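Tokens in:
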């Protein structure tokens, strides 16, 4: 189980989440060096490949990076969504480095939280996506009191497909289907695949795991 910490300010989200191998901290101006974050988001190794299936393209200026951090700060304060940085913890040799980003967008009227994540290429294949997902599923159901967790990936993104199917199955969730013309990027309309985990499915899977360890 993740250490969810305490809510930060008036927003319902914790400023820091800790898992076995990750420190997940709020993305804000106080937590990130803007020039370093711009370097990562603009010219990091294979950044074009990293962002191919994301909602954003490599940043073209530090002003764009600043505007992005400004936006996520506003969304945090409004309780709309929470954006985080992923940092490996000791004894990982990359401890403290920014491995990528993650977040949850909340539709309070529908009691649904939608998860998102991206990782720098040199951090692929370490299992961080699944570890982060487990923490955010726990956050959604046990802290935010939501009824449903959703996650999507664009058609063709096989890497995300494999990772998502693995943790959705772990929590008893299911594949909902293909959403036609759901995502727009650079004026191109793309299809998305959607998966969901209900509160009841989460509780059932949690109880089954507990029974298996007794």
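Residues out:
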């Amino acid at each position: 189980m993740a250490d969810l910490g305490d809510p930060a300010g008036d927003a319902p989200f914790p400023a820091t989440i800790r898992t076995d191998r990750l420190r997940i901290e709020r993305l804000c101006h106080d937590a990130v060096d803007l020039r370093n974050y711009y370097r990562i988001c603009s010219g990091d190794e294979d950044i074009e490949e990293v962002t191919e299936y994301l909602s954003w393209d490599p940043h073209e200026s530090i002003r764009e990076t600043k505007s992005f951090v400004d936006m996520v700060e506003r969304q945090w304060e409004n309780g709309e969504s929470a954006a985080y940085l992923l940092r490996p913890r000791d004894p990982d040799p990359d401890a403290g480095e920014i491995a990528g980003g993650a977040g949850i967008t909340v539709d309070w009227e529908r009691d649904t939280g939608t998860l998102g994540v991206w990782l720098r290429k040199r951090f692929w294949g370490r299992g961080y996506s699944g570890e982060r997902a487990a923490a955010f599923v726990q956050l959604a159901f046990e802290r935010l009191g939501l009824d449903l967790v959703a996650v999507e990936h664009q058609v063709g993104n096989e890497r995300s497909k494999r990772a998502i199917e693995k943790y959705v199955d772990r929590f008893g969730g299911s594949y909902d289907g293909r959403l036609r013309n759901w995502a727009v990027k650079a004026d191109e309309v793309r299809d998305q695949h959607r998966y969901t985990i209900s509160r009841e499915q989460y509780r059932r899977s949690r109880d089954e795991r507990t029974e298996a360890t007794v």
